Amino acid sequence: MYSADMRRAQGSKDVEPIVCLNPVKGLWRVRMDITETDDGAEWLEHDFDHRPTANELRRLYDEYTNSQVKDKILNGMTYDGAKIYLSDENQRNFLSAFFVPAEFKVGEDDEGNAVYKKFTLLTKLTAFKTAVFTHIQQCIKEGWEKKDGFDVRPYLRE
What's the pLDDT at 1? Predict the structure, then answer.
Protein backbone atom coordinates (compact mmCIF):
# COMPACT_ATOMS: atom_id res chain seq x y z
CA MET A 1 0.00 0.00 0.00
CA TYR A 2 1.28 3.47 -0.82
CA SER A 3 0.13 6.97 -1.60
CA ALA A 4 -2.28 7.09 -4.52
CA ASP A 5 -0.04 9.46 -6.45
CA MET A 6 2.97 7.12 -6.28
CA ARG A 7 3.40 4.23 -8.67
CA ARG A 8 5.47 1.06 -8.52
CA ALA A 9 8.23 0.69 -11.13
CA GLN A 10 11.19 -1.56 -11.79
CA GLY A 11 14.41 -1.46 -13.72
CA SER A 12 18.17 -1.21 -13.25
CA LYS A 13 19.65 -1.55 -9.78
CA ASP A 14 21.72 1.58 -10.58
CA VAL A 15 18.62 3.78 -10.70
CA GLU A 16 19.03 7.35 -9.50
CA PRO A 17 16.77 8.56 -6.66
CA ILE A 18 15.92 11.75 -8.57
CA VAL A 19 16.11 12.65 -12.25
CA CYS A 20 15.11 15.63 -14.36
CA LEU A 21 12.71 14.36 -17.03
CA ASN A 22 12.37 17.61 -18.94
CA PRO A 23 14.56 20.60 -18.09
CA VAL A 24 12.51 22.95 -20.28
CA LYS A 25 9.25 22.13 -18.47
CA GLY A 26 10.99 21.54 -15.12
CA LEU A 27 9.65 17.98 -14.73
CA TRP A 28 11.33 15.81 -12.10
CA ARG A 29 10.87 12.18 -11.06
CA VAL A 30 11.60 11.00 -7.52
CA ARG A 31 12.15 7.32 -6.71
CA MET A 32 11.74 6.07 -3.17
CA ASP A 33 11.97 2.76 -1.36
CA ILE A 34 14.45 1.42 -3.92
CA THR A 35 14.91 -2.31 -3.31
CA GLU A 36 17.28 -4.60 -5.17
CA THR A 37 15.70 -7.71 -6.73
CA ASP A 38 17.08 -10.66 -8.68
CA ASP A 39 16.26 -8.82 -11.92
CA GLY A 40 17.52 -5.36 -10.90
CA ALA A 41 15.48 -3.16 -8.60
CA GLU A 42 11.97 -1.94 -7.86
CA TRP A 43 10.79 1.29 -6.32
CA LEU A 44 7.96 3.76 -5.97
CA GLU A 45 8.09 6.92 -8.02
CA HIS A 46 6.39 10.27 -8.08
CA ASP A 47 6.61 13.08 -10.64
CA PHE A 48 6.87 16.78 -9.78
CA ASP A 49 6.36 19.78 -12.06
CA HIS A 50 9.37 21.41 -10.37
CA ARG A 51 12.47 20.29 -8.51
CA PRO A 52 11.10 19.17 -5.14
CA THR A 53 12.29 20.78 -1.94
CA ALA A 54 13.54 18.87 1.08
CA ASN A 55 10.21 19.51 2.84
CA GLU A 56 8.21 18.18 -0.12
CA LEU A 57 10.38 15.06 -0.22
CA ARG A 58 9.96 14.45 3.50
CA ARG A 59 6.19 14.98 3.25
CA LEU A 60 5.96 12.51 0.33
CA TYR A 61 8.03 9.94 2.23
CA ASP A 62 6.00 10.48 5.40
CA GLU A 63 2.72 9.96 3.48
CA TYR A 64 4.10 6.77 1.94
CA THR A 65 5.33 5.49 5.30
CA ASN A 66 2.03 6.39 7.00
CA SER A 67 0.13 4.36 4.39
CA GLN A 68 2.42 1.37 5.07
CA VAL A 69 1.90 1.70 8.83
CA LYS A 70 -1.88 1.93 8.43
CA ASP A 71 -1.93 -1.17 6.23
CA LYS A 72 0.22 -3.11 8.69
CA ILE A 73 -2.03 -2.08 11.60
CA LEU A 74 -5.15 -3.10 9.65
CA ASN A 75 -3.93 -6.39 8.22
CA GLY A 76 -0.75 -7.45 9.99
CA MET A 77 -1.96 -8.93 13.26
CA THR A 78 -2.68 -12.54 14.12
CA TYR A 79 -3.79 -13.87 17.49
CA ASP A 80 -4.19 -17.54 18.41
CA GLY A 81 -3.80 -18.38 14.71
CA ALA A 82 -6.56 -16.02 13.58
CA LYS A 83 -5.95 -13.01 11.38
CA ILE A 84 -7.26 -9.95 13.23
CA TYR A 85 -8.61 -7.07 11.14
CA LEU A 86 -7.95 -3.86 13.06
CA SER A 87 -10.20 -1.27 11.46
CA ASP A 88 -10.75 1.87 13.52
CA GLU A 89 -14.14 0.51 14.58
CA ASN A 90 -12.68 -2.86 15.62
CA GLN A 91 -9.91 -1.14 17.58
CA ARG A 92 -12.50 0.85 19.53
CA ASN A 93 -14.65 -2.24 20.09
CA PHE A 94 -11.75 -4.41 21.23
CA LEU A 95 -10.10 -1.85 23.48
CA SER A 96 -13.34 -0.64 25.10
CA ALA A 97 -14.46 -4.10 26.27
CA PHE A 98 -14.05 -4.52 30.04
CA PHE A 99 -16.39 -7.37 30.90
CA VAL A 100 -16.72 -11.04 29.98
CA PRO A 101 -18.16 -12.76 28.20
CA ALA A 102 -17.16 -10.69 25.17
CA GLU A 103 -17.35 -11.76 21.55
CA PHE A 104 -15.98 -9.95 18.53
CA LYS A 105 -15.96 -10.42 14.80
CA VAL A 106 -12.20 -10.30 14.19
CA GLY A 107 -12.10 -10.77 10.42
CA GLU A 108 -12.75 -13.36 7.73
CA ASP A 109 -11.22 -16.67 6.75
CA ASP A 110 -9.82 -17.45 3.29
CA GLU A 111 -13.31 -18.28 2.00
CA GLY A 112 -14.76 -14.96 3.21
CA ASN A 113 -16.62 -16.40 6.19
CA ALA A 114 -16.80 -14.31 9.35
CA VAL A 115 -14.43 -15.30 12.14
CA TYR A 116 -15.47 -14.60 15.72
CA LYS A 117 -13.42 -14.67 18.91
CA LYS A 118 -15.18 -15.21 22.25
CA PHE A 119 -13.59 -14.45 25.62
CA THR A 120 -15.04 -15.92 28.78
CA LEU A 121 -12.11 -15.19 31.09
CA LEU A 122 -11.06 -11.64 31.92
CA THR A 123 -7.39 -12.66 31.81
CA LYS A 124 -7.82 -13.88 28.19
CA LEU A 125 -9.65 -10.68 27.20
CA THR A 126 -6.92 -8.59 28.82
CA ALA A 127 -4.22 -10.58 27.02
CA PHE A 128 -6.01 -10.01 23.69
CA LYS A 129 -6.41 -6.29 24.32
CA THR A 130 -2.74 -6.05 25.30
CA ALA A 131 -1.76 -7.84 22.09
CA VAL A 132 -3.87 -5.41 20.01
CA PHE A 133 -2.37 -2.38 21.74
CA THR A 134 1.17 -3.79 21.46
CA HIS A 135 0.71 -4.51 17.74
CA ILE A 136 -0.51 -0.97 17.06
CA GLN A 137 2.28 0.63 19.07
CA GLN A 138 4.93 -1.55 17.39
CA CYS A 139 3.68 -0.60 13.92
CA ILE A 140 3.72 3.10 14.83
CA LYS A 141 7.22 2.80 16.32
CA GLU A 142 8.53 1.11 13.17
CA GLY A 143 6.97 3.91 11.09
CA TRP A 144 8.69 6.57 13.21
CA GLU A 145 12.00 4.78 12.85
CA LYS A 146 11.58 4.51 9.10
CA LYS A 147 10.76 8.22 8.82
CA ASP A 148 13.69 9.14 11.08
CA GLY A 149 15.98 7.08 8.83
CA PHE A 150 14.96 8.83 5.61
CA ASP A 151 17.96 10.63 4.15
CA VAL A 152 16.93 13.51 1.93
CA ARG A 153 20.52 14.33 0.87
CA PRO A 154 20.71 12.04 -2.20
CA TYR A 155 17.66 13.85 -3.61
CA LEU A 156 19.20 17.30 -3.20
CA ARG A 157 22.50 16.74 -5.02
CA GLU A 158 23.02 18.67 -8.23
Answer: 44
